[in-house]
Design goal:
This protein is of the alpha/beta class and about 300 residues long. It has two domains: about 240 residues, Spore Coat Polysaccharide Biosynthesis Protein SpsA, Chain A (Alpha-Beta Complex), CATH 3.90.550; about 50 residues, no CATH class. About 40% of the residues lie in helices and about 10% in strands. It has a seven-stranded mixed β-sheet with strand order 3-2-1-4-6-5-7. The longest helix is centred in the last third of the chain and has 22 residues. It is globular, with a radius of gyration of 20 Å. The two termini are about 35 Å apart. It binds guanosine-5'-triphosphate and magnesium ion.
């Protein structure tokens, strides 16, 4: 983890400008060090374009891995184009992308969707940001307006970013983007649990463990081929994932700002987090007390009873 540049997270935005040329002697990666991975589910209308763009932009150097659950010609096109195809029963976005992320052995792993929505031509910017010290580079579709995105999706994505920013205490712009670059050790160090909400989890857990995350504004294009996204069900699943992952990280990986949880320093964030902790608990009162007890154990050790009185 490059803690040396984690100060880029301290400002109100996560910006490329904050990542300076690195003096770090760590290796400078080229596309020979990059695997581009994706889940593919009946994407025969787009896969040819996506794979050909990757080939052109990386000069054929990047490895491509597709985890495929299609019943159409998608896997055949992928193999013909030289991609490594792993077949998997369709079980949702996260199951496929987790498999895709964990498959390659190259040091930098890039995710994208296989629907021609993401600007593959911006891959060099992602690699540059990794070489400048980022652990994760996250494509931010919303700062450029994302006009090609259906209005309801755009609204939903803005709300997810607002919710995550509130819980994280730092501004993030796009929590559900499919285009990111990761140093492989980040992928391997964290246990990933979400399915529909995997994209949000892949941003939130590293941020809460103080990895260096850089949001890279990107263009977003209209989808080629039919969507399988169910906006309401998907939106509810992503909201639940954001709440669950933030709460789990708060409980198990204490941030230096945990004083927010203490009654000695009850900020607005404290009250909001307490309310959200109650909302995501199934047995409200009991679990609210339990949340407090966990905090006490992690933050104050034996003086647990002092904290329990907060609730
Ligand atoms: N293997 C596999 N891939 C999947 C599955 N569900 C989605 N995908 C792929 O994951 C990527 C993201 O899914 P999309 O359907 O584009 O989801 P989205 O971007 O939220 O929604 P759109 O607005 O339709 O683009 C695409 O490349 C899909 O083909 C699945 O169950 N199995
Ligand atoms: Mg998509």
């Amino acid at each position: 983890m490059s803690n040396t540049v984690s100060s880029v997270l301290d400002g109100s935005t996560l910006g490329l400008d904050s990542l300076e040329e690195s003096d770090d002697p760590s290796p400078r990666y080229t596309f020979e060090d990059v695997s581009v991975v994706m889940g593919t589910y009946n994407e025969e209308a787009a896969i040819e374009t996506v794979l050909s763009d990757i080939e052109t932009v990386t000069d054929g150097q990047a490895e491509v891995v597709c985890v495929d659950g299609s019943s159409d010609r998608t896997p055949k096109i992928a193999r013909d184009r030289g991609a490594r195809v792993i077949e998997q029963e369709p079980q949702g976005y996260g199951v496929a992308v987790r498999e895709a992320l964990l498959t390659p052995t190259r040091p930098v792993v890039v995710t994208t969707d296989c629907d021609d929505t993401y600007p593959i031509e911006q891959l060099p910017d992602f690699l540059t940001a990794i070489n400048n010290g980022a652990d994760i580079v996250s494509g931010d579709r919303l700062s450029h307006g994302a006009d090609a995105m259906p209005r309801v999706n755009r609204l939903g994505n803005r709300l997810f970013a607002l919710l995550a920013s509130t819980l994280l205490g730092r501004r993030v712009h796009d929590t559900t983007t499919g285009m990111r670059a990761y140093r492989r050790e980040v992928i391997e160090t964290i246990d990933w649990t979400e399915n529909t909400g995997l994209s949000a989890e892949l941003l939130i857990r590293p941020l809460m463990r103080e990895y260096t995350v850089h949001e890279q504004p990107i263009e977003y294009r209209e989808r080629a081929g039919k969507t399988t996204l169910a906006p309401l069900r998907g939106g509810a699943a992503i909201t639940k994932s954001i709440l669950k992952v933030c709460l789990e990280e708060r409980l198990h990986h204490r941030l230096p700002s945990s004083r927010d949880w203490s009654h000695e320093n009850p900020t607005t964030g404290f009250h909001l987090k307490r309310l959200l902790a109650c909302l995501v608990s199934r047995r409200r009162r009991v679990n609210c007390h339990r949340v407090s007890a966990y905090r006490a154990r992690f933050s104050l050790g034996s003086s647990r009873t002092i904290h329990l009185s907060v609730w």
